[in-house]
């Protein structure tokens, strides 16, 4: 009995694979290496002492996916595989719809045909847009996302809700807030591929001197210090939530369709400026920055109410922002020892 982890060599996927292996799950990874590197597999093995089965191919290739389902007794799936760069999704909408939705549908075809249940989907707080009130709980109305990327997440959720209802399957939609940090071993983290989309990798590269200055997009938001506020969740805590969500799905004896939705965040908002200052303090480094105009599509504030996950999954975020930011710097040092090329 194995769990298929798509995108399992990516940032959140690799941390989750470690937690699954530590909890004695058998793991089968499919990842086409489009946004990661093969050494992550070796590092997962070094951390856990176990080597998961790995297939390097694109999930859009249904015939190869069918072979994986033929070869293994797949009992559930955590589907991380997706393209995730918001800006790029605006420039390449069809590629994004194709990659994020065709991959999903191919897996669901296999699930449908083989009667498999237990599907976990990586969704995002982007489905809420700029929510009218904080904190955001799961009953907060969804808004049409501004980006194609966000739309693929909302469409993914709808496809999965229809799938669960029509075929009586169990599905968990996990809405992540802003994942940050690296594994405490410093052997897993967010790889420096392309210009970082997210704040923390940018901060890391600026502190390391790879980038001259951090651009802070707007300091005239209606927040305490004028910079935008987000909910930064440590990636290992996030990975553990997947194990809890999977265990809940697998233990559910209901014959009915089951659609679980959970916000995964810390419940605390931090401004861009707070993150920069916390990074400097935690790691005794300097992060040069400049204030720029607001960026189109950025919202002012988003932080989670994650009480439902605590109540139903027994999960809550445990790691402070400062602790998480320390792991980021250790990861950067590890990348330097490996001479990992940072693609500017
Ligand atoms: N990182 C975030 O800030 C964030 C926030 C909310 C939601 N998410 C979602 O979480 C998931 C994981 O994000 P991440 O940050 O780990 O991204 P990532 O890019 O590090 O990982 C995704 C992995 O999927 C692989 N992949 C992509 N398309 C594939 C395909 N067609 N076939 C096989 N493999 C493919 C990539 O090579 C990569 O290793 C994504 O679905 C993302 O949209 C991420």
From TrEMBL:
Pathway noted in the entry: Carbohydrate metabolism; galactose metabolism
EC number of this enzyme: 5.1.3.2
Pfam families recorded: GDP_Man_Dehyd (PF16363)
Keyword line: Carbohydrate metabolism, Isomerase, NAD
NAD(P)-binding domain sequence ranges: 4-326
GO cellular component annotations of the record: cytosol
InterPro entries named among the record's database cross-references: NAD(P)-bd_dom, NAD(P)-bd_dom_sf, UDP_G4E
Catalyzed reactions per annotation: UDP-alpha-D-glucose = UDP-alpha-D-galactose
Keyword Isomerase: yes
Domain of life, source organism: Bacteria
CDD domains named among the record's database cross-references: UDP_G4E_1_SDR_e (cd05247)
UniProt GO BP: galactose metabolic process
Cofactor: NAD(+)
Alphabetized GO MF terms: UDP-glucose 4-epimerase activity
Gene3D superfamilies xrefs: NAD(P)-binding Rossmann-like Domain, UDP-galactose 4-epimerase, domain 1
PANTHER family attached to this UniProt entry: UDP-GLUCOSE 4-EPIMERASE (PTHR43725)
Entries under NCBIfam families matching the protein: galE
Quaternary structure note: Homodimer.
Family to which the UniProt record says this protein belongs: Belongs to the NAD(P)-dependent epimerase/dehydratase family.
Protein name: UDP-glucose 4-epimerase
